[in-house]
Design goal:
single chain; 685 residues; alpha+beta; nine-stranded mixed sheet; 16 helices
């Protein structure tokens, strides 16, 4: 790494996570391994907020060794459809593939609910004569006269964002590549995505959809990344800006423009990575991440040190993005989620949210509907001051909102209504954890629950008790843990290729050759990003399925490939866990092969604190109502910053800190470990 101009003890690594409301900054000292955080409002131009956050963290850009960045920029662009005009060029007869989709619906029973429109309108989906068959044979060469006419039309329209999606291009990209060359010559300033480069896999809708998403995001991501990098280098930063992508790695600004759709799940991936890190620091290889913010909760799962990955996800239902992505289940349960009564007078919670404006009733900004935040204020679990005293919470307003919205209609006391609101929210989150664990064959009792986000530590212990999870971990700075996740990742690329064959018919030498070709491509990408050969690591995977099945499972395989026996045995085992049945005697086929190419980036070590033989001192107390008790009790309140490694807090207790509040229920103990993570032990019946 190029050194800055400051002294060595000022060298830092910075990670930034830009959310819809706040921009979070993690600053890690190279010399001491100590971390501090900063939090600033997100600005209309997110770059202003990023630079303000770095300044708030006390960082001089000359002293910055490495900067990694997670952002919701791509996600928001797809949701709001704020991207430049784009065209799609496709095989004649395939114009409507991305609009026909798969015919499935988000709500199967609501025939009146309309699907979102494709990202590119029908009038902008242009066709050309060409055809490649299933085997890769070019049946109809590209009609170059038509291609030149399309290029003329596109140039006349002034469109500079183009997606090229030809039938069966995944097996032979020749026609797509020729079309790209014609368009690049006619419109040299255009940003062009071709499906055989973006996602060289079977199934037209999924390939077309991913390529279209990539195309419309490329100019958005490219413009943002180049402006951010330029402004940081003007301030003295000398290295590349690294952007977090959905697969759990980072890439340079230049590569992010090429594979822009990979940033569509940037923010939620960071939280899952940080969750795994916090758990491993505390000695747990199995962990479930619970990231609860103001509007939603993200749930992730890590089994034996590996985070679950999915290869089909979406920002808007019906338009899949098939880049590998860390699997995160998101539900509408956050601190600002509204409590409401349905037509049957049953209490519901979310997914509607009070948002930041007007926010929960206790904010005093005009909100009148009760929220989870209001319930926690009424129960005394939240104090009347947050964010170090910068935000005041009005308990009287929270009480009135719950009284009108829930307590009086249901004939309950305000406190009991608040308890009910929290229990419904917890039940929603517990169901989400079950979907990602029990439904996939994992037993929650074998995992630790990592509770983070601004609201996660308020609910973590209750969820763990409901799910019979024995341990809850709360990181030192739960409100900015997603930013920490950005700090922990390496440069990473996922390269895939179709390889349809029965396992018994596979020539292992041919398979080894295929893997080596993918590794060469991965090495070229890493080299273009400045990664030295000695820092390159390659992980091979085979997607396998029973012959005749639709879905496949990704199985790790060692290098070099000498036999498939071990991989097949592992596939049967994983199929039994995932789907609750396996057929060891049934024929297995390979569907796809992939290589994850990782460029290991330098990382500073986190500080390790020696335990002290001291008892914690409470800073005060307040009346708090717990689920386990019939009435509120006077409860000691501790300040998180005053808790040292080795200290133990006995429940009932409340632990306040700048970015969150931790609830330690009766009978639960919370110990501070050497990394300053709170380890709560949950007594289970």
């Amino acid at each position: 790494m190029t050194q800055g101009t400051g002294t060595e003890d000022r060298k830092v690594r910075v990670a930034c996570d830009v959310g819809g409301t706040f921009t979070d900054i993690c600053v890690l000292s190279e010399a001491t391994g100590r971390m501090h955080v900063a939090k600033v409002p997100t600005t209309p131009d997110p770059i202003d907020g990023v630079l303000a956050g770095i300044e708030a963290g006390g960082v001089n850009l000359n002293d910055l060794l490495l900067f990694k960045h997670g952002t919701t920029l791509a996600t928001n662009a797809l949701i709001t459809r704020r991207f430049p005009p784009a065209v799609m060029v496709t095989t004649k007869g395939f114009r409507d593939t991305i609009e026909i989709r798969r015919g499935n619906r988000d709500d199967l029973w609501d025939t009146y609910k309309e699907m979102a429109k494709p990202y590119i309108r029908r009038r902008d989906r242009l066709v050309v004569s060409e055809r490649t068959d299933y085997s890769g044979k070019v049946v109809t060469p590209l009609d170059e006269a038509e291609a030149l006419e399309l290029a003329r039309v596109i140039k006349k329209r002034g469109v500079k964002t183009i997606a090229i999606c030809f039938a069966n291009a995944f097996i032979n990209p020749a026609n797509e590549q020729r079309m790209r060359d014609i368009l690049a010559e006619a419109v040299p300033e255009a940003v062009i995505s071709i499906s055989s480069d973006i996602m060289p896999e079977i199934f037209e809708h999924e390939r077309f959809s991913t390529t279209v998403a990539n195309a419309v995001l490329a100019p958005v991501v490219g413009n943002y990344a180049s402006r951010l990098e330029s402004r940081m280098k003007e301030g003295g930063y000398k290295e590349d800006v690294m952007l977090l992508h959905s697969g759990g790695g980072v890439m340079t600004a230049k590569m992010a423009e090429r594979y822009a759709a990979r940033l569509s799940a940037s923010g939620i991936a960071a939280g899952a990575i940080a969750s795994r890190f916090v758990a491993e620091q505390a000695g747990f290889r199995n962990s479930i991440g619970l990231d609860m913010g103001g509007t939603s909760t993200d749930v992730s799962l890590c089994d034996n040190g590996e985070i679950n990955v999915t290869k089909e996800w979406f920002v808007e239902y019906g338009y899949p993005i098939c880049f590998p992505s860390i699997e995160v289940l998101t539900i509408g349960a956050g601190g600002g989620s509204l409590a409401w009564l349905d037509a049957a007078n049953s209490l519901r919670n979310g997914p509607q949210s009070a948002g930041s404006t007007p926010g929960p009733a206790c904010y005093g900004r005009g909100g009148e509907n009760p929220t989870n935040c209001d319930a926690n204020v009424v129960l005394g679990r939240l104090s009347d001051r947050l964010a170090g005293g910068k935000v005041g919470l009005d308990k009287a307003l929270a009480t009135e909102a719950i009284r009108k919205g829930v307590a009086e209609p249901l004939g309950m006391s305000v406190e009991d209504a608040a308890i009910a609101i929290i229990k419904v929210a917890n039940a929603n989150m517990s169901d989400a954890v079950r979907l990602l664990s029990i439904r996939r064959g994992y037993d929650p009792r074998d995992f630790a629950l990592v509770a983070f986000g601004g609201a996660g530590p308020l609910h973590g212990a209750a969820l763990a008790k409901d799910l019979a999870i024995p341990v809850v971990l709360v990181p030192p700075n739960p409100g900015v843990t997603s930013a920490l996740g950005c700090l922990l990742v390496d440069i990473q690329h996922d390269i895939t290729r179709m390889y349809l064959s029965k396992a018994d018919d596979v020539n292992v030498m041919d398979l080894e050759t295929t893997f080596r070709e993918l590794e060469v491509e991965g090495a070229e990408r890493l080299k273009s990003e400045g990664v030295a050969p000695e820092n390159m690591v390659f992980q091979r995977k085979i997607d396998m399925r029973y012959h005749g099945q639709w879905r496949a499972l990704a199985i790790n395989i060692a290098s070099p490939v000498t036999s498939l026996e071990e991989a097949i045995a592992h596939f049967h085992e994983e199929h039994g866990r995932e789907h609750n049945y396996s057929r060891p005697g049934a024929p297995v086929e390979i569907y796809r092969v992939s290589v994850t190419a990782t460029g290991v980036t330098p990382k500073a070590k986190f500080a390790d604190f020696d335990p002290v033989d001291e008892k914690p001192a409470a800073s005060g107390s307040r009346m708090v109502r717990f689920d386990e008790l019939p009435a509120a009790v006077d409860t000691p309140v501790y300040l998180r910053d005053a808790l040292k490694a080795g200290m133990t807090v006995e429940g009932p207790a409340v632990i306040d800190q700048l970015d969150s509040t931790v609830i330690v229920p009766p009978g639960v103990t919370a110990e501070v470990d050497r990394s300053l993570t709170l380890v709560m032990r949950i007594p289970l019946a």
